[in-house]
């Protein structure tokens, strides 16, 4: 079976969930080979990658790979593409993943498809565009398909792979050393999952009314182990930090469950959440456009419904 390279997304030695999704997807189309680039590789990382089907694990663990922005990872992948001629390369559709993909496409004279929500036979990628209103199927016709896949679009399923490890040494070019990382600031995370990775997201909009009122959104999120999101109206008003904005100019999320409270459903908001598997909308206006994409809708005052919902969930724990 032909090999599909999967760039491992990792932070401080921890493999991010999106990598397991990519390995699961790769397994349906070929033999997944994980590519670890940068420091932090360990036996536990190896075990996790093999658990989700990595037949091979290419390890380029030089510290220096983690010292520069994106470019070294593209060089590691380009080296492997030249040596192994894989059938495709999958990366996470994160800021970094997309940058690495673009650089890799140039280096290998290949086509790149960004932000896929699925990949089928023949590496036909599915993208959800225009606010989720249109689904596009496309295929790379030049070089090797390089595809970035949106986190949460595939459910990760464990299935043991051989996990055969192979060390990779790549001499980085001067160009790859052009942008050095001089400082890393750990973002205060609290106990909540990362927004783009969370299986459940609870978002609040202008209907929440104030920054203080976001406490009820947070309580519901915490009862479900969810991340908190917000519409641009809420972030522009300063009620919630911009990094939690969902939508065209914010984050794209695709969780199993998306709960929107007090959000009308402007196309720019839908663009960031429409591929969520189940959408629950709470809005006092029965005509709110977000109801059009809702699987479940509650017409009513969020200040009554959200606390009741939280209480009910807590009772069932
Ligand atoms: C270029 C561009 C990019 C943009 N990017 C984004 C983006 O990334 N993300 C984004 O979200 N928006 C984005 N916007 C803004 C977008 O067009 C909308 O203005 C915004 O999404 C509206 O946010 P909202 O739904 O919270 O507010 P509103 O549209 O004002 O809706 C508030 C809703 O709350 C309901 N409500 C009020 N009180 C209650 C209550 N007590 N209980 C229940 N429901 C209640 C109302 O019925 C209403 O439906 C962008 C706009 C532009 C032009």
UniProtKB/TrEMBL annotation:
Domain Electron transfer flavoprotein alpha/beta-subunit N-terminal, chain residue ranges per copy: 4-185
Binding-site residues, FAD: 206, 231-232, 245-249, 262-269, 283
InterPro entries, per the entry: DHS-like_NAD/FAD-binding_dom, ETF_a/b_N, ETF_a/FixB, ETF_alpha_N, ETF_asu_C, Rossmann-like_a/b/a_fold
Domain of life: Bacteria
Matches recorded under SUPFAM superfamilies: Adenine nucleotide alpha hydrolases-like (SSF52402), DHS-like NAD/FAD-binding domain (SSF52467)
Alphabetized GO MF terms: electron transfer activity; flavin adenine dinucleotide binding
Alphabetized Pfam families for the sequence: ETF, ETF_alpha
Keyword terms, alphabetized: FAD, Flavoprotein
Cofactor note: Binds 1 FAD per dimer.
Cofactor(s) essential for the protein: FAD
Subunit structure: Heterodimer of an alpha and a beta subunit.
Function in brief: The electron transfer flavoprotein serves as a specific electron acceptor for other dehydrogenases. It transfers the electrons to the main respiratory chain via ETF-ubiquinone oxidoreductase (ETF dehydrogenase).
Family: Belongs to the ETF alpha-subunit/FixB family.
Name this polypeptide is given: Electron transfer flavoprotein subunit alpha/FixB family protein
Originating organism: Microbispora triticiradicis
């Amino acid at each position: 079976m032909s090999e599909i390279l999967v760039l491992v997304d990792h932070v401080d030695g921890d493999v991010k969930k999106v990598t397991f999704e990519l390995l699961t997807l790769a397994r349906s189309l070929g033999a997944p080979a994980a590519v670890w680039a940068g420091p932090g590789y360990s036996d536990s990382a190896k075990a996790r990658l093999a658990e989700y089907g990595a037949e091979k694990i290419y390890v380029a663990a030089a510290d220096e790979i983690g010292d520069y922005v994106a470019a070294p990872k593209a060089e590691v992948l380009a080296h492997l593409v030249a040596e192994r001629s894989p059938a495709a390369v999958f990366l996470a559709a994160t800021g970094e993943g997309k940058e690495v993909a673009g650089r890799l496409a140039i280096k290998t004279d290949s086509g790149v498809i960004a932000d896929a929500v699925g990949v089928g036979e023949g590496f036909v990628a599915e993208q959800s565009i225009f606010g989720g209103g249109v689904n596009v199927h496309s295929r790379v016709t030049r070089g090797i398909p390089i595809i970035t896949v949106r986190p949460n679009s595939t459910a990760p399923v464990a299935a043991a792979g051989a996990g055969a490890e192979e060390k990779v040494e790549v001499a980085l070019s001067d160009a790859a050393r052009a942008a050095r990382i001089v400082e890393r600031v750990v973002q205060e995370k609290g106990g909540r999952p990362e927004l783009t990775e969370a299986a459940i997201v609870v978002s609040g909009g202008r209907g929440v009314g104030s920054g203080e009122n976001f406490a009820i959104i947070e309580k519901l999120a915490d009862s479900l182990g969810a991340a908190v999101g917000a519409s641009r109206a809420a972030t522009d008003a300063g009620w919630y930090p911009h990094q939690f904005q969902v939508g065209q100019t914010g984050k794209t999320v695709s969780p199993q469950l998306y709960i929107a409270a007090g959000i009308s459903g402007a196309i720019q908001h839908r663009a960031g959440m429409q591929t969520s598997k189940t959408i629950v909308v709470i809005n006092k206006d029965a005509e709110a456009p977000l109801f059009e994409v809702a699987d479940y809708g509650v017409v009513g005052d969020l200040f009554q419904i959200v606390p009741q919902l939280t209480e009910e969930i807590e009772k069932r724990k």
